[in-house]
Here is the input.
Amino acid sequence: MSWTLSDVGSAASIVSLGLTALVYVTVREIRRGVLYKARAPELLQNLRDQKSALSTYLTTYQASTRDFQRQLAPTESTLRALESKVGWLFSEQRRAVRKVRLLVSRSRGAVLDENAAEEVYDQLTYLAEHLAQDWRDREWNV
Here is the structure.
């Protein structure tokens, strides 16, 4: 097969498109990493504070049901902010944040019994600890 100048140009265009996509993904990951590094301490502290408030409301859940429900909105907002920063689209951390965010989102629209509220709190506690451990690991990889 003989390559014409047109064939070489077409092949170069395809290679160029592939390289452009690779650069785009790389720059996006760098941006996400920088955002996580800058925002994670604040967002993780917010998550700990929200988790603490939910824990307080759980101790007297029958009397604090409305307060528990009200605390879910800022918690979902914090989780949404974390979700886009913790990892690439299919990473374990991002899936874990998404799972808990969706649980919190569904819980906001329903009146929870005490067992369901405890499930939300347990999942949030696990996630907060998981992300705190991940943050500590990333600090070592400076």
In short: The radius of gyration is 22 Å. Residues 5-59 form the longest helix (55 residues). The chain has one domain: 39-140. The helical segments are 5-59, 61-83, 92-108, 114-140.
